[in-house]
Write a structure and sequence with these properties.
Layout lengths: L4 E7 L4 H11 L5 E8 L6 H7 L4 E3 L2 H6 L11 H7 L9 H22 L6 E4 L8 H7 L8 E5 L11 H8 L3 E8 L9 E8 L6 H24 L3 E9 L5 E9 L1
Helix pairs in contact: 1-8, 5-6, 7-8
The chain binds glycinamide ribonucleotide.
Length: 258
C-alpha cells in the first residue's frame, strides 16, 4: 500500500473546499487522510462537515484571544526574528502597532500549534482560513525551510487581488477573467510560490454571486489536484534567478511539477 499523507485542515467558514478534499481522500484520488480540522471561529459551519466524516475537530477562538489582554506569549517568542522575516508591513508602518499585531497573533498561534501537535501532520491546508499566519507559526510547521508544507487557496489570479475578498475585488475591477490560485504560504500576504491556477470568464451580465459560484467550482477541482501532487511527492521547489529593470539580481521561489 502507498503511504497515506496526513493532512491537517484549517477553516473559518462553510468548508466547501474542505468537503472537496474529504471527498477526494475518500475516493482515493488523494493518497491521504485528514487527521484534523481546526477552526478559528467556534461557529464555522465546516466543522459539521468534518464531524459527519468522523474527523477530529478543534477550535482556537482567535477573536477571543486577540481581545484578551492577559494571554501570554510563548517562551520561544522572539519579536526581532519575526520583524526581520515578516513581509506584511513596510518600515513606514507605526512600529508599536506592528509589534502589538504580532504579539497578539503569536499568542493565538501558540494555542493553535499546541492543538495541532496532538495529530500527525505532513501537510497543512488552509481552506478558507481567514487569518494571517506569522513567521512564528510558519517556521514551526515548516521545520525544513526547503520543504514548505502549508498550502492556501486564494480566490483570485495572484498576484492580482491578494487579501480578504479576491472574488469581490475581481468583480469590482471589471475583470473579464477571474480565477483561483493554490500556493505555498510564505511570510507575506498571498505571496508564496504558486502551485496551480485556474481561470474562468466573466461576462458583463455576471453578478458577484456568479463570479463566486464559477470560482468556487474551479477551487473544488484545483485544490484536491494540488494536494494530490504533494502527496505523490511531485512538487519541487526551485529558485529562479532574474535581473530587474534596474540591473539588480534577484530570485523567486517557484514550484516545478515533476
Ligand atoms: C474560498 O473562496 C477561498 O478561496 C477563500 O475563502 C472561501 C472559502 O470557502 N479563501 C480566502 O479568501 C483566503 N484568503 P469554503 O469555506 O466554502 O471553502
Amino acid at each position: 500500500m502507498k503511504k497515506q499523507i496526513k493532512i491537517g485542515v484549517l477553516i473559518s467558514g462553510g468548508g466547501s473546499n474542505l468537503q472537496a478534499i474529504i471527498d477526494a481522500c475518500e475516493k482515493n484520488e488523494i493518497e491521504g487522510q485528514i487527521s484534523f480540522v481546526g477552526s478559528d471561529k467556534p461557529d464555522a459551519k465546516g466543522l459539521q462537515r468534518a464531524e459527519k466524516h468522523h474527523i477530529p475537530t478543534f477550535i482556537v477562538d482567535f477573536a477571543a484571544v486577540l481581545n484578551d489582554k492577559n494571554t501570554g506569549l510563548p517562551s520561544d517568542f522572539i519579536l526581532e526574528d519575526i520583524l526581520e522575516k515578516q513581509n506584511f508591513f513596510s518600515l513606514q508602518t507605526d512600529q508599536d502597532k506592528v509589534r502589538r499585531f504580532f504579539e497578539k497573533r503569536v499568542a493565538a498561534e501558540s494555542l493553535l500549534l499546541e492543538k495541532i501537535s496532538a495529530y500527525p501532520l505532513d501537510l497543512l491546508i488552509l481552506a478558507g482560513f481567514m487569518r494571517i499566519l506569522t513567521p512564528y507559526f510558519i517556521d514551526r510547521i515548516n521545520s525544513d525551510s526547503n520543504k514548505p508544507r502549508i498550502m492556501n487557496i486564494h480566490p483570485a489570479l495572484l498576484p492580482a487581488f491578494p487579501g480578504v475578498d479576491g472574488y469581490g475585488d475581481t468583480y469590482r475591477y471589471g475583470c473579464k477573467i477571474g480565477g483561483c490560485t493554490v500556493h505555498f504560504v510564505d511570510y507575506g500576504e498571498d505571496t508564496g510560490a504558486i502551485i496551480g491556477q485556474k481561470a474562468f470568464e466573466i461576462s458583463p451580465e455576471d453578478t458577484l454571486d456568479d463570479v463566486r459560484r464559477k470560482g468556487l467550482a474551479l477551487e473544488w477541482q484545483l485544490y484536491p489536484r494540488c494536494i494530490r501532487l504533494f502527496a505523490e511527492n511531485r512538487l519541487e521547489i526551485k529558485r529562479n534567478k532574474y535581473t530587474t529593470k534596474n540591473g539588480v539580481q534577484k530570485s523567486r521561489t517557484v514550484v516545478r511539477i515533476l
